[in-house]
Design goal:
This protein is mainly α. The protein has one domain. The radius of gyration is 19 Å and the shape is flat. The termini are close together.
Amino acid sequence: GHIPAIIAFMIYMIAGTAETNRAPFDMAEAESELGAGFHTEYSGMKFAYFFLAEFINMFIIAAIATTVFFGAWLSPFGITESIPILGVFWFLAKAMILVFLMMWFRWTFPRLRVDQLLTLEWKYLLPINLMNIVIMALIVWQNLIIQF
């Protein structure tokens, strides 16, 4: 069944975006942090290193999602085996699409308050994820094949 995997992917992407501490999940604590976060305190190479670390974190989260949910280096057309370098292309293309998705979240959604973030994570994401794990375990245990 693909439905539990789609739910797991959506929860992973929301949690991964929250892990990168980017909007809408970044928490501004001081007046000076409302502009660009704590990065306003740094300049030059320290500023560049912080932003590089943020984008590396986003790419790692996207690479894990690509490997687990999207078949890693496999082509959607089944031609990866004939030309091996295409596997690298497909992996990077899938990962970059997911990085763009995380950046799109930042551009689209407003910043969450702390209480809204905790409500989202504890009231909605955790119970949905636990229910999804049970459903996936039952599907594997019963060896069910659900066609949608």
